[in-house]
Design goal:
2 domains, Heat Shock Protein 90, 366 residues, alpha+beta, 7 strands, two-stranded antiparallel sheet
Length: 366
């Protein structure tokens, strides 16, 4: 059911899981409008099945169809309301016991509604005896509720598997980026040890701060403010090595400080720009960083001078880092996320974009 699906980021804000920390309950939030709509449609389909299995008469009884529909809808809506209210308590139980109690609850509601209709004579009498009719309705309720709860359970297990695979994938990608980043930064520090030990010591301190901030949970999101500070620490290390050859042009004032971004996203893009466009050039060049946020889409563009010879000699590890970034944002933000590369007017452009309007609202609400 679409009402209870969500991405990995929305999972941490799901209030329905508060009753059972660290465990996702298989029963969805049946009080949500989308869930209620699905239940109403399924109940109406069940009514049509119940009517069609009865012996056919020359004239179709529309009144009976309406009364049966009302009867079934009351059972469905009351059961949904009770299951929604009892969901925090059921979440403390194991899945099998919670499912059995859920089925018994639906059967109890069915028997109660049947007793009310008998009292009010809404649906009318049948040729079956009262006991047989109550048993028949109970069996129908038990079978349908068991099928629905089983469906919810299987969907929950499938969603857990998908999330586990996503976490493993992100952790693998993150693990590839960290050594790549570490080795290149250590090379920058090594070049300062003999030429300027004081700057080398400060660079080691910068690296310590950088890794303290970056060694977070794999796949976790950070804010744009923290990611920008992280990237500037890296640039301060590279500035020791490149000196005035490295020039920076920032155009990021339009980005909210709390906009979410995966950790270690901007830094590899800057590293790519330095390897491709600055290090091979005697005169250096300008690395331009542009960021924009429009209509819920975040766009980050990093550009640098481009030369074909430098491109051929660039490290394959840098290309791997860019591929990892593209895979990470696709895993986190879905198919609308992208990482593209283009070259024009003597410059190399790396553009990253992904939708994050909802995540930004959640980050501000926390």
């Amino acid at each position: 059911m679409s009402a209870e699906t969500g991405t990995m980021q929305n999972e941490r804000n799901n209030p329905g899981q508060s009753a059972s920390p660290g465990k996702e309950f298989f029963l969805p939030e049946l009080c949500l409008p989308q869930a209620l709509l699905v239940l109403v449609v399924l109940a109406e389909l069940l009514v049509l099945v119940l009517v069609l299995v009865e012996p056919m008469h020359p004239g179709f009884d529309w009144v009976r169809l309406a009364l049966i529909s009302l009867f079934v809808q009351w059972i469905v809506l009351l059961s949904a309301a009770l299951l929604c209210g009892l969901r925090p308590w059921l979440a403390r139980l194991n899945a099998g016991l919670a499912g059995a109690l859920g089925c018994l609850l639906v059967v109890a509601v069915t028997l109660a509604c049947t007793a009310v209709t008998d009292y009010c004579q809404l649906v009318g009498t049948t040729s079956d005896g009262d006991v047989e009719r109550y048993l028949r309705y109970s069996m129908i309720a038990l079978i349908m509720s068991a099928l629905m709860l089983r469906y919810f359970y299987l969907q929950s297990q499938w969603r857990k598997q998908q999330q586990a695979e996503l976490r493993a994938r992100i952790e693998s990608l993150q693990a590839r980026i960290r050594p790549h980043f570490l080795f290149n930064t250590l090379n920058s520090i090594a070049s300062l040890v003999t030429s300027d030990p004081g700057k080398a010591e400060q660079a080691v301190l910068d690296l310590s701060d950088l890794f303290r901030a970056s060694l977070g949970k794999p796949g976790s999101l950070t804010t744009w403010r923290e990611e920008l500070a992280l990237a500037k620490r890296y640039l301060s290390i590279e500035q020791y090595r490149l000196g005035e050859r490295l020039q920076l042009d920032w155009d990021v004032s339009a980005i909210p400080d709390d906009l979410p971004i995966p950790q270690l996203t901007l830094q590899p893009l800057l590293e790519n720009a330095l390897i491709y466009g600055i290090a091979p050039r005697v005169e250096g060049g300008v690395v331009r960083v542009e960021a924009d946020y429009e209509r819920g889409v975040f766009i980050l563009r990093v550009s640098n001078p481009y030369e074909e010879v430098a491109h051929r000699q660039a490290s394959s590890g840098t290309q791997q880092a860019l591929a990892n970034i593209g895979a990470r944002i696709t895993a986190l933000f879905g198919p609308l996320a992208s990482l593209s590369v283009e070259r024009r007017d003597g410059r190399h452009f790396t553009c990253l974009r992904y939708p994050c309007a909802r995540l930004t609202q959640e980050a501000r609400a926390i």
